[in-house]
Amino acid sequence: MAHGKENKETESSIDVKSIDDANIDNDNEAQTEFASYEDSRHEGRSGKGSRRREREPIEKEFVEKLVKLNRTAKVVKGGRRFSFSALTVIGDKKGRVGFGFGKANDVSEAIRKSIEKAKRSMIYLPIKNGTIPHEVIGLFKSSRVLLKPACSGTGIIAGGPVRAIMEAGGITDVLSKSIGSSNQYNVVKATFDCISKLMDARTISRNRGKSLSELWG
Question: Can you give the pTM of this predicted structure?
Answer without folding.
Answer: 0.72
